[in-house]
């Protein structure tokens, strides 16, 4: 999410039970996932891992949530693994967002 207040709300709601990683935009999120992937394939295995769930804002500067979702589905999907993604938005019309998210591979 590109809004710090929204990030703080999510962190406060989930942070006591889960490791919450924040990203201000789609490029930051993809860069974090790339670092996790590299760490998992090297000696740094215990330091980082792919997330169990991604909350992804639809409207962000630069790459939109839809752009990030397409990248995720292209890179991080295999026959036995699919990162769950929940798309969120305070601004996009619900029907449009739901249909687009589902067709792009949202969980």
TrEMBL record:
Keywords: Phosphoprotein. The keyword Membrane does not apply. Pfam families: Response_reg (PF00072). The keyword Cell inner membrane does not apply. Gene3D superfamilies: 3.40.50.2300. The modification 4-aspartylphosphate is found at residue 57. One of its GO terms (biological process) is phosphorelay signal transduction system. Residues 1-107 form the Response regulatory domain. This is Response regulatory domain-containing protein. It comes from Pyrodinium bahamense.
